[in-house]
Task: inverse folding
């Protein structure tokens, strides 16, 4: 066993996992292979490599856009207005804001959702009568993630 996973409680989707020494060795060797698609980890400190492996496994176990984007924002430096889509979560968009605005407008009665990094971009009429989408959310630019769908 490389990774041991146990459910914390039957009613939650919370897991505890442990990577044994063999698993860490497998990951390390895979990362150190010279391949243009892999990061050069030969100069990483042991704790950086261990943290990278733990994040990779956690991302694999959780497999959802919201958690991935939340984790990304906690480590990201700079300002971002992001949107993420994935074929595994059809009809879902996950949006994040850190250091810049991000707005979302939608109508629960219509299959339409607008999102943009400029607040004015979602304040547009959507029909010939000049109606706007009735619901609007402006994400906190200090760092916020929202899942729509």
Result:
């Amino acid at each position: 066993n490389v990774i041991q996973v146990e459910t914390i409680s039957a009613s939650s989707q919370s897991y505890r996992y442990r990577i044994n020494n063999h698993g860490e060795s497998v990951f390390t060797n895979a990362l150190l292979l010279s391949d243009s698609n892999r990061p050069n980890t030969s100069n990483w400190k042991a704790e950086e490599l261990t943290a990278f492996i733990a994040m990779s496994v956690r991302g694999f176990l959780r497999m959802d856009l919201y958690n991935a984007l939340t984790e990304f924002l906690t480590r990201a430096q700079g300002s971002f207005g992001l949107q993420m889509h994935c074929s595994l979560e059809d009809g879902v968009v996950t949006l994040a804001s850190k250091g810049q605005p991000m707005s979302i407008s939608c109508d629960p009665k219509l299959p339409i959702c607008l999102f943009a990094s400029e607040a004015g971009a979602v304040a547009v009429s959507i029909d010939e009568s000049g109606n706007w989408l009735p619901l609007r959310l402006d994400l906190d630019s200090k760092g916020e993630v929202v899942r729509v769908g």
Observations:
- Helices lie at 21-32, 46-62, 65-75.
- The two ends are 36 Å apart (CA to CA).
- DSSP finds three helices and eight strands in the chain.
